[in-house]
## 1
Amino acid sequence: MAKIKFIEADGKEHEVEAQAGQSVMQAAMDNLVPGIVAECGGFASCATCHGYVDEAWLKKLPPPDSAEEGMISCAYHVQSNSRLTCQIKVTPALDGLVVRLPLSQTSE
């Protein structure tokens, strides 16, 4: 198990437990984290699971592949630390991962 902290654009935090092997997106969906919509079900084809990986964690993740990079380029409010959470697999090494959610994915 790894704990992942999601921070909404308004600062509200959600800490969830994630199973090794599942995606960060699935951990958010399983725990009803607002702002992770996942319209495509995790196939890197919609960017509704876009998040900002905390800078301290970026080097601990494999780089995005070309499909993820292409979809990120279509997302709103892209930053240098933007990732699709559906493409990040949970491992024990990601215990403590912090993902911030863009303003464009607020539920209001």
## 2
Amino acid sequence: MLNKSAITTMLPVSDVDRATRFYGETLGLTLRGKGPDGAPYFAAGMGDAIGLMPAKDTMPSKHTVLSFEVDDVAAEIKELEGRGVRFEDYDLPDLRTENHIAEMGGEKAAWFTDSEGNILCLHQDSKAT
């Protein structure tokens, strides 16, 4: 049953208004509505959602919390940079980016943070290009 279920990822955020602007205006996601606790829910993917859960004393995760699969990671980077998103660059022994993009086997990926400091990713199956 679960393999046919839509998923809602709940992200704890310290400033709901700021995060709502980021996910709605900066990322361009569609607001589905709000829960009883005021948590906004954004449409994402094919029936999935992202919920922004109000939480005090929230610490951003030190790992990727969301990864968006895209057809063209370079084009998405360009569009999001135009909306003010700043992408991370890495030069580590096991992870190196060029023009914000890391190539790892059959995948390309790029990382950025949301308004709350959570790490988000764009990824593309490079075999599909």
## 3
Amino acid sequence: MLVARSLVLFVLAALAEIGGAWLIWQGWREHRGLWWIAGGVLALGVYGFVATFQPDANFGRILAAYGGVFVAGSLAWGVVVDGFRPDRWDLTGAAICLLGVAVIMYAPRGA
């Protein structure tokens, strides 16, 4: 159950961070305005809190593992939202990152 909770929190963190950054990008680079930027800032604030709900108490471990989720999530966001077509190297890199997440977060450790 703890692994499932952790995975859900990683997905929520990715949605908040990637979505927030995307909103700021749209507001500034695509000239959609300050409301988009404000929405992005709020989403990034939400991202900052999501990690605190992870079952593991080690900030460095959580953030290191989340980096792999961010990589894969960013590619997925690009596919779904922007029509990006990752190549095999993008997908290989994302798979390696997710393997790193699994090792960092879910490898058996001694008490």
